[in-house]
Design brief:
mainly alpha, two-stranded antiparallel sheet, 49% helix, 11% strand
């Protein structure tokens, strides 16, 4: 039924919100950039550990924006100080 579909979406959304709230924070290094692929890969591992289905990449990106994490306009460094990286100025627990 439709109500089952909606409740599943809410569970997945809550899991994604929990991941972002507990594991993602603005970086203390303003030059650091973390790409969406890196964020998504960590998020998928998180979902596996919690046995929940991950949101699609685009849905995760929209949720990041809702939670006031936006992709930076300028390029910066990746975690290995390699220049030219695009992405978000964030750190992820246990990864970065």
């Amino acid at each position: 039924s439709r109500s089952d579909i909606n409740s599943e979406d809410n569970i997945d959304n809550n899991s994604a919100k929990e991941f972002i709230t507990n594991n993602v924070k603005k970086s203390s290094n303003p030059r650091l950039r973390t790409g969406l692929s890196d964020i998504y890969n960590v998020y998928k591992e998180y979902c596996e550990s919690k046995q929940t289905l991950p949101l699609k990449r685009l849905a995760l990106k929209e949720l990041l924006i809702d939670m006031e994490f936006t992709e930076e306009k300028s390029k910066g460094m990746n975690i290995n100080n390699k220049p030219g990286k695009r992405g978000y100025n964030i750190e992820i627990n246990n990864i970065i």
